[in-house]
Design a protein that fits this description.
Order of helices and strands: HEEHEEEEEHEEEEEEEH
Shape: globular
Strand order of the largest sheet: 8-9-10-12-13-2-3-4-5-6-7-14
Oligomer: single chain
Strand content: over 45%
Number of strands: 14
Distance between the termini: 68 Å
Structural class: alpha+beta
């Protein structure tokens, strides 16, 4: 009986192991849409917008691309620093953030509360589970994630770094509007190292405070 139990346990462990894939390198493409009657200016900003995450070892890069320009955020795992550069037409800005500055910029995501639900559905071919995340300011967001893909480094999932899997769909609140990010494509091909090179010229260097002001007033 003990042997049968042991065999069943090992078989189950093997099945679970094969159903999960650890992700250290990939390109994730998310579409962006607005829920409900969003502000017209916000609709114009996010028209044809997309969000692309590049993962390569301890480094990650997030590109937010809109019809007005793009913002690139590079997280360097070895130095625990972040670099943000923005491109709006001929205007180009670059800011390097220390660990503490990056933490301050994303303070609202710290100590968030995760509530799992029993709801599940297949999204992009992966079995995904529904959860709710409540931030420090009481903002509550709905997220869907899959445990079939496990990012080894999850700092790029700013809204839900503690999720036990990959974000497949989530919502973000911008004022009274809800923005929906939905994973549309996963590419496991090698990510070019050049994507993680920081521009040396062509950008105006901004301080942390100047960068925050720019982000609020763009």
């Amino acid at each position: 009986m003990k042997r049968l139990f042991l065999f069943s346990f090992l078989l189950l462990s093997t099945v679970v192991g094969f159903s999960q894939r650890k992700v250290t390198e990939a390109t994730l493409r998310y579409s962006i849409s607005l829920a409900g009657d969003a502000d017209s200016s916000l609709r114009a900003f996010y028209k044809s917008a997309q969000y692309i995450c590049y993962l390569k070892g301890v480094n990650s890069r997030m590109d937010l691309i809109t019809n007005l320009g793009k913002q690139i955020t590079l997280l360097q795992g070895k130095t625990n620093t972040a670099i943000i550069w923005r491109e709006f037409g001929s205007q180009r800005y670059l800011t390097t953030l220390t660990t503490s500055q990056w933490a301050a910029l994303n303070q609202r995501y710290e100590d968030s509360k995760l509530s799992l639900t029993a709801d599940s559905v297949k999204l992009l071919g992966y079995q995904s589970r529904k959860a709710f995340i409540t931030l420090q300011d009481s903002t509550r967001s709905e997220v869907w994630f899959t445990t079939e893909l496990i990012p080894v480094y999850r700092d790029f999932q700013l809204v839900a770094k503690t999720l036990p899997g990959l974000l497949v769909q989530y919502e973000a609140a911008i004022g009274n509007n809800r923005v929906i990010y939905q994973l549309e494509e996963i590419n496991f091909n090698p990510v070019p190292q050049a994507l993680f090179d920081v521009p040396k010229t062509g950008y105006r260097l901004l301080s942390f405070e100047e960068s925050k002001w720019l982000g609020k007033n763009q």
